[in-house]
Design a protein that fits this description.
Blueprint: H1 2-24, H2 26-30, H3 35-62, H4 64-71, H5 78-98, E1 107-111, E2 127-128, E3 137-139, E4 141-144, E5 147-150, E6 154-166, H6 170-174, E7 187-197, E8 203-214, E9 222-234, E10 239-244, E11 258-265
Antiparallel strand pairs: 1-3, 1-11, 2-10, 4-5, 5-10, 6-9, 6-11, 7-8, 7-10
């Protein structure tokens, strides 16, 4: 019985100890609710940041942020500073595409020379046009007596345009002193572009030809333009010039009658 009584007391002691041990862990369980506000707060902050970032992206895509950047130029945002090098790189690329060598390519553009008069006699004969060097430009090309001079060998684009016009009021035609009216009812207006080849002792070679036969009258305003262009390889020392028939009908305005060449490459 003594053993049984002592066992019973031991059992009671063990039960008390277990209960006491369970009470020791209660503070740990009671500390769990303190983490919930921190967790909820973190989630709320993350949600607000996500909403703010979405709104910022939306404003940037709609262009609103760009307007703000222009109005607050002294305080540029980080986003503008980050995108600026990319924009500068794109601008530099465009400049490199359009940039030409410092000295530039050989070129010339000459308007028709004013004043100049051509005789109406022998109007069908082609005559070389004189060009106005003072109001045009020649870069690495020369000009003398109606002829462009090539100073650099290479591949060139040559262009020429000539305009013809005729207008003679009735009072002028009737008051001509002993003169006969000019017949313009069947007029040939032809434009020729020639090249003198230095390697062939200045031999002239026809590069381009265009024109038309016009049937004009004596009383109304008449106008016709001929334009052409051609790419050809030229040698240093070659010359270029333009001949036209009925040169006395030339329109003496630089916007309508001009001649030029541009070097495209070697």
């Amino acid at each position: 019985m003594a053993a049984t009584h002592s066992d019973y007391r031991g059992y009671l002691r063990n039960t008390v100890d277990i209960e006491a041990g369970q009470h020791r862990f209660h503070p740990v369980q009671s500390s769990e609710p303190t983490y919930r506000p921190l967790l909820f707060g973190t989630l709320a902050v993350m949600g607000l940041l996500q909403v703010a970032s979405s709104v910022a992206i939306l404003l940037h895509l709609t262009g609103y942020l760009q307007e703000v950047d222009l109005s607050t130029a002294p305080h540029r945002p980080i986003e503008e500073v980050q995108t600026e090098p990319v924009l500068n790189a794109l601008r530099d690329t465009r400049r490199r595409r359009c940039k030409t060598p410092k000295e530039g390519l050989a070129s010339a553009h000459l308007p028709v020379k004013v004043p100049q008069e051509y005789s109406k006699k022998g109007e069908q004969k082609a005559i070389t046009i004189d060009w106005n060097e003072m109001h045009g430009h020649c870069h690495k090309m020369g000009y003398q007596k109606g002829k462009l001079q090539v100073m650099e060998s290479g591949f060139y684009y040559i262009y020429a345009k000539t305009c013809f016009r005729y207008y003679e009021p009735l009072e002028d035609s009737s008051s001509q002193a002993g003169g006969t009216p000019v017949d313009v009812s069947n007029t040939q207006l032809i434009q020729y572009v020639y090249r003198e080849i230095i390697k062939q002792n200045g031999k002239s070679v026809l590069l381009m030809k265009t024109g038309s036969t016009m049937r004009w009258n004596n009383t109304s305003y008449n106008m016709y333009c001929a334009q052409q262009g051609l790419g050809v390889r030229l040698d240093e020392g070659d010359t270029l010039y333009v001949n036209v028939s009925n040169a006395w009908m030339l329109d003496l305005e630089g916007e309508g009658t001009y001649f030029g060449a541009i070097k495209l490459g070697n």
